């Protein structure tokens, strides 16, 4: 798993909890809608990940977003969990990064 690259952040050293929190804050400050996705490690390169609940439209609390990511990890042990930030103005993905590796 460690040799698979999952986007821009995967080429950097692993993010600490503080750095993940900073990225969540960035998503929220931009007004993007955060969403949590998960998949099995062997499917991380695929286009389709499982959505954890609905996107958190209008969410302003980083704690709530991080709590949902943790709940997803606990409910899906062994899965890779990522957070995406959907830019509803440009109608595209603003960011995506892994918050839990399997």
What does this structure look like?
The chain is of the alpha+beta class and 102 residues long. The chain is 26% helix and 26% strand. Strands 2-1-3-4 form a four-stranded antiparallel β-sheet. A hairpin with a 4-residue loop joins strand 3 and strand 4. The termini are close together.
Keywords:
26% helix; 102 residues; four-stranded antiparallel sheet; alpha+beta; 4 strands
User: Would you list the SSEs in sequence order as H and E?
Assistant: HEEHEE
Output the number of helix runs: 2
**Helix content, binned percent:** 25-40%
Termini separation comes to: 8 Å
Radius of gyration: 13 Å
Number of strands: 4
How large is the share of residues in beta strands? 25-35%
Oligomeric organization of the protein chains? single chain
Structural category is alpha+beta
Sheet of most strands: 4 strands, antiparallel
The shape, in one word, is globular
What integer is the average pLDDT? 90
Which parts are unreliable, with pLDDT below 50 for 5 consecutive residues or more? none
Spatially, the strands of the biggest sheet line up as: 2-1-3-4
Q: How do the strands and helices of this protein lay out in sequence?
A:
Elements: H1 17-29, E1 33-39, E2 50-52, H2 62-75, E3 80-87, E4 92-100
Antiparallel strand pairs: 1-2, 1-3, 3-4
Helix pairs in contact: 1-2
Report a brief summary of the structure.
By secondary structure, the protein is of the alpha+beta class. It is 26% helix and 26% strand. Helix 1 packs across helix 2.
């Amino acid at each position: 798993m460690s040799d698979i690259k999952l986007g821009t952040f995967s080429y950097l050293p692993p993010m600490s909890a503080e750095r993940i929190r900073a990225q969540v804050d960035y998503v929220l400050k931009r007004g993007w809608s955060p969403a949590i996705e998960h998949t099995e490690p062997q499917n991380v390169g695929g286009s389709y990940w499982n959505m954890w609940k609905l996107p958190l439209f209008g969410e302003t609390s980083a704690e709530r977003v991080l709590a949902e990511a943790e709940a997803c990890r606990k409910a899906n042990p062994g899965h890779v969990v990522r957070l995406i930030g959907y830019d509803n103005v440009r109608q595209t993905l603003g960011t995506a990064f892994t918050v839990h590796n399997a």
